[in-house]
Amino acid sequence: xxxxxxxxxxxxxxxxxxxxxxxxxxxxxxxxxxxxxxxxxxxxxxxxxxxxxxxxxxxxxxxxxxxxxxxxxxxxxxx
Length: 79
Ligand SMILES: [Zn+2]
Hints:
This protein is an alpha+beta fold. 34% of the residues lie in helices and 28% in strands. The chain has one domain (8-78). The chain has one helix spanning 52-78, and strands at 8-12, 19-23, 28-30, 37-39, 44-49. The strands form two sheets. Strands 2-1-5 form a three-stranded antiparallel sheet, with helices on one face. Strands 3-4 form a two-stranded antiparallel sheet. Residues 13, 15-16, 18, 31, 33-34, 36 line the site of zinc ion (ZN).
């Protein structure tokens, strides 16, 4: 009855640090930002989701957070 709920993973590219989606059963995934071939099982996972819809929502939030963090860091540098 119990199945692997996480079917889609949000993994972090070990080369550029970008977030990308990968299927849990997928072995490798090319990073859309830098083209690096990521070993999905070994990659750092930022989150996991039940489906692609949920995963893209998480991905959007992670990207927004990253931008906010960057903006905050820039602001701190100015003052
Ligand atoms: Zn990358």
